[in-house]
Hints:
The structure is a homodimer.
Chain A: E1 8-13, H1 17-28, E2 33-36, E3 48-51, H2 53-61, H3 65-71, E4 77-82, E5 88-93, H4 96-102, E6 107-110, H5 111-124, E7 128-130, E8 135-141, E9 144-149, E10 152-161, E11 179-191, E12 205-210, E13 213-220, E14 225-233, H6 235-238, H7 247-253, H8 259-264, E15 274-278, E16 286-287, E17 290-292, H9 307-322, H10 330-360, H11 363-375, H12 382-388
Parallel strand pairs in A: 1-2, 1-10, 2-7, 4-12, 10-17
Antiparallel strand pairs in A: 3-6, 4-5, 8-9, 9-10, 11-14, 11-15, 12-13, 13-14, 16-17
Amino acid sequence: MNTAPDPADVVVVGGGIGGLSTAYALATAGHSVRVLERAPEFAEVGAGLQMAPNATRILREWGLLDEVLEAGVTPRRLLFRDALDGGELTHLDLDDEFVRRYGGPYVVIHRSDLLAILVRACERAGVALVPNCQVRDVVTGPDGATVHSNLGDYQGALVVGADGLRSTLRAKLSDDEPICSGYVAYRGAFPIADLDMDAGGLQDVVCYVGPGCHLVRYPLRRGEMLNTVAVFKSPAYERGEEDWGGPEELETAFAGACEDVRKALAALWRDRRWPMYDRLPIPTWTADRFALTGDAAHPMLQYLAQGACQAMEDAHCLATQLGDAGEPDWAAATKRYEAERTERTARVQSTARVWGDIWHVDGIGRLLRNELFRQRDPRDYTYVDWLYGQ
Amino acid sequence: MNTAPDPADVVVVGGGIGGLSTAYALATAGHSVRVLERAPEFAEVGAGLQMAPNATRILREWGLLDEVLEAGVTPRRLLFRDALDGGELTHLDLDDEFVRRYGGPYVVIHRSDLLAILVRACERAGVALVPNCQVRDVVTGPDGATVHSNLGDYQGALVVGADGLRSTLRAKLSDDEPICSGYVAYRGAFPIADLDMDAGGLQDVVCYVGPGCHLVRYPLRRGEMLNTVAVFKSPAYERGEEDWGGPEELETAFAGACEDVRKALAALWRDRRWPMYDRLPIPTWTADRFALTGDAAHPMLQYLAQGACQAMEDAHCLATQLGDAGEPDWAAATKRYEAERTERTARVQSTARVWGDIWHVDGIGRLLRNELFRQRDPRDYTYVDWLYGQ
């Protein structure tokens, strides 16, 4: 197939949350944008995700917050409990004071609902969405870049690599590989009516933290669905086995947990799982007319629930640096984007690792963690100001 | 030798700090007391020890506090620092507010000075001090007890076993053995003038806590001496070797510590060392006319600096329960002593272990410990009220 579609200002490789956010932000600023997606549809697998105010402020600016709020849930609190004894450790109120402080609400939403909102928004903004497109390479020079794909070549003044954790385009800038944490996530999103479960207390995002494991659950879709994520360190991975993190390890990993947590395992899919990877920060995301964004630029462990949020910050920043349509200095603007974003995302990546270690600590460390959490004033925002703040 | 000395009301086996405190407390209440000590002299090996208000209140009641204050030092603060980076973590002011709150000062004193004060006090109170006395057994019955020794038999209405961590008399009540922690202490007490060292900041008890190691130092003898204790987990012990904790392990154990700590190792004796042991709490300290006290009853790890203090609490309690001279109900009084003391000392023993774990934690636990310590309000007495309070 040697079609030669019209050149676009921007070609985005990858139609996930990050890629579509970038496409939408640039299209509404007046740029012509094309998104190339490998899969046959623009859709997300997975369950819920969390949008902190640093993302919802952007969604409001983009005019998408109302749709997100309608499809999602604004939980009452982030509540931490000890996974072993179930005891409450600390919480963050997500109330009016929180919303005022950070200029946006905290929302949880099904990934597929968020993606559908972004797809519709892109369509409204005139973004060209190209499915079934396998990108083979990007060739970039001082005046533009070309994407080679199974559907032909696509020209752009700028190409954005938004192809996720296992980004092939990142190889243009770094030879690093994803780093396996040895942890695996099981997820599940079910109508609450279908679960034999007390729905009490389900207005919170509850995080049970335990030795080598944790479980998070929260409501989705106006509280009609329950979202559950269970994460544990795989003994088989520790032993160096190829096949690790299977469902036979799940029950054992939570055998010492409190009854609420053990019961909650019933609300997980057993036929898929997500091994947890990240990468180390890299200082360079851009080359001529090419820039990385989202997980392709800064994949992170999920402990701060910032994967989608940081991808939206990327999109917002890149659009701001490029400015409104016309003839931007593409190379200079992407360099400014890189300069603004790399330090912050590196901090999120490294803090996510530490935060995971804090959740999963055992023994005397657990005792110290619990004491520190219990002593925390719920109105102390020290730990989140840097992340959620303006 | 088959001498037959006069019977005493109380025969105390062991002339250390605990035995002499018991002897003094009972003698001043009017009982006739004899102390049997294995060594040729009533003396202590070792360096400094700490006397918290729960002990100094008793010393004041006994009329000995002024002598202790004159021989010792009242430090300004208990100061905790991280052994690796040297950073300050938290402190407890030992100022007027502290003294008012707990009804007594915090004092550090050389062990030999404290023992000398107790020896003189016992002599003034008419206690018979018997050195070179190897106790072979105690035979107790409903009407009294007999100590069999190399110097003959000693009769008493009550025999007190104050023979320390490796108590032989404890075997009458429990078949447990000392439990090795795998940690070893090096100590040193030197005139500050002899040390090539900046004496600044030496008005504090400073505790540097680090992964698998810690170092404590404080002034002695009106600030003319420096007392240092360095404690570390022995790799040779971990490997199961017979000979462990030797001086060749000392430098290695502190190789990662900050310069202040590494320099402080110069102020340690290298020719002796103290492997650290404790035992688990036992519920029974008494049998007919026999009672355990001090380390023989409840040996503890030194992390709360309460060994001598708890022995003094034992002495004070036993004297209170026996009441003034006359014909006490010896068995009932010792049972009341046991009932009052076992729960508290068990808590001190188990808390000392946890406290040591907190000091020696590594990795993410150290990060949490440091954060918890740094956040502590210096005027928060939660952690010490139960221990130092009335």
